[in-house]
Each structure stands twice: as structure tokens, then as C-alpha cells.
Amino acid sequence: MSKLDELIKEYCPDGVEYISLKNISEIGTGSSDRKEAVENGEYPFYVRSRDVLRINKFEFDETAIVIPGEGGIGDIFHYVEGKYALHQRAYRVHIIDNCLNPRFLYYYMFAKFKGFILSKAVSSTVSSIRKPMIEEFKVAVPPLEVQREIVRVLDKFTLLTAELTAELTARKKQYEYYRNDLLSFETKTERILLGDLFDFRNGLSKGKDFFGRGIPFIRYTDVYNNRYLRKDDITALVECTKDEIQKLNVKRGDVLFTRTSETAEDVGWSSVVLDDLDECVFNGFTIKATPKTDKLLPEYCSFCFSTDEFRKYVTKNCAFTTRASLTGETLSKYKLAVPSIEVQKKIADVLYNFEEICSNLNIGLPAEIEARQKQYEFYRDQLLTFVEKGETILTDRQTDRQTDRQTDRQTELN
Predict the structure, then answer these.
(1) Which pLDDT score, from 0 to 100, does residue 195 have?
(2) Cα–Cα distance for residue pair 254/275, rounded to 1 Å
């Protein structure tokens, strides 16, 4: 029997109480949009979505659970200790009854709150959270000894996952360092204006009635999310005229750049077509760069437009009115280092292999993190599921089965 089972048997063998948050906590919001929020402020400012800014003034000095009112509904919780400020569409849950451990509440809401919200919704989604929803949420309140043991176990599990994630992040930073280093050439390496290497053209704009049938169509998200595109990656379809196909056809070696977005950081991301395509066109929020020389290897291009140097050029030179936008003319003025084809191939091979180690979800740390996260969520849900007082208690056989499952994981974590 695990330590947790012993505690439950000793302190709450007949089940636990479930109490609404409104009876054991203060639930409120913060101020309206804070214009003094800055990147290097002293205190965290929790906004209505998943973002956290910095600010030079604080509203609260306490331990609380912060829930964004919009964006990632029921998925995002912040455990806060100390001074902080809050947006008017974010909520703080501050415990005022000593029957509840704040960190236990954090884990409990992470596991149970989204399901509660969706059960109250008319449709399958919720666009925002309201204060009465939070007030009505019921929390299992086992004795503090049980809460503390659950927190200890989940903190340890969280730390293990965080260590793996930190290692993966370090590997990705290492990859980015070597990518930038490999693609930073000495002055003797020829640099050529992109305007002398490519022709630029904007993509196809069509009404929604033209989509779902026709020829392959490269979407904005295909470009934004992929360093390179293979034939099988292109799954959308669009109906086009012969003239549109002729003007906007995509082939191996073409480089596609995101042309417009909400922020400068999201424009100019590229994807290179690495397969020969019969008939395929691209979207109107994208710029196509078609090679007009044989000096560039497509595989090399798939890496050289994500360097820090190129990203700084794009964010500095893109236009911005209501949205950030990039033009072929702006791209044409960037000077790209063009080593020999042999050197390009070596660089591409090294970076491709390194990227596979960092990114492939079927191998290495990403797969381990994903498996650990699923394991954690399963075990967390088991730990935070209690019999309510007055309900039928499990039979001895059912209890033994549940205990065996918990003991297996408890042994590993202890």
C-alpha cells in the first residue's frame, strides 16, 4: 500500500467533501488594459489570454490561481505567489479557507475545470469564462495531509517533465547556434541579391466556393509550419483556370514566404518545395520566389532563410499599417551567402540530421516528453478522483485494483 493510500485510509475512509469555490475563496478580476505594461517590468501582468506581460505596478500580493477569461479556455492556469497585476478579463482565485492547499487546488483545477466548463456549455466549445462558472465549480477537499502528499507526488512528476523539456530546449538552442554558425560565411563567400537569384510573385486569391476540389493548393499554414514541403504534405484543393495554373504553378526549388500577418515576427517564414509537382498553386497571403539561376540547392535554401540574420532583416524592413506585410521588392534587396553547391549540400545534410534528432516525434526526447506527459495526466487524474461522502464505497476487490495501479506509479516516483 502506498503512502497516499495509507493517508486516505486513515483520514478519509468514508470519502471527502466537495465544496463550491465561492464558499472557500475570493474570485475576482483586475483592472482594465494596463498601458504601463512593459517587457522589463518588475511584476507579472496576467492578461486575458495565455500571454504574461511585465508591469511596474502590482494590484495583489498573495497566493492565487489565475485563469485567463479568453484564449485556451480551461487549458491555462497560473500558480502565483507574491506581487502581480491582473487584466479585467482574467480571474484570480484566492483561497480564504485553510481547508485547502493552494497548490492542490491548482492541480485539481488543471485536471477537472475544463471538463466542468464544457459540461455546462450549450455547444462543444466555450469562447470565454464568466465568474459564476468559476464560483459553481466544486472541489474535492480531502484532509490537508492527503492534499500535501498529492502535491508532493505531482510536483515531483512535474519536475521530471520540466527537466526533459529543458534538455530538449537546450538541444534546440544548440541546433540554432550551429545553424547560424554554419550559415555565417567569411567575406570571401559570394553574397548575391535575392533579386538576382529569384523572381517574385504573390499567390492566388479565390472565394471559398472554389475550394475542396480541383488541383493541389498550398495554404498559408503549410508554409508557416514547414521548413520544406513534399508532395504528400499538400492536402488542400482548389479549382483554377488554365491561366491561373500557368501563372501560379509551383515546382521543385520554389521558396514560399509568408507575406502578411498580425506581427512582424510572423512574416517572412519560408518553406521550400522539394518534390516535382505536376499542377499545384499557392495562396494569396504568400510570396513565391522562383529560382532563375542554378546556383542554389533547394535543400540549402530550406535552412538559410531561418537564420537570425535573415529574420532580423525581415522584421526590420517589413511594412506595418494595420498588419505586418512583406513584398517581393523587400526580399529582393537581401544579400544571401551563396557558397559552392558542394558546400551547400554538406551544410544541408548536417542541419537536416541535427533537426531530425531535435524535432522528430518518433525518436529521442520529444517522444519521451510526450509519453511522460500522457502518463502524468493519467496518474494525476487518478490521484485527484475521490469518493464523495455519502456515495457507495468501492468493494474491496475494486479498491485493491485501484491501489495496485497507484502503487505501481507511486513506487516509480518515490
Answers:
(1) 96
(2) 10
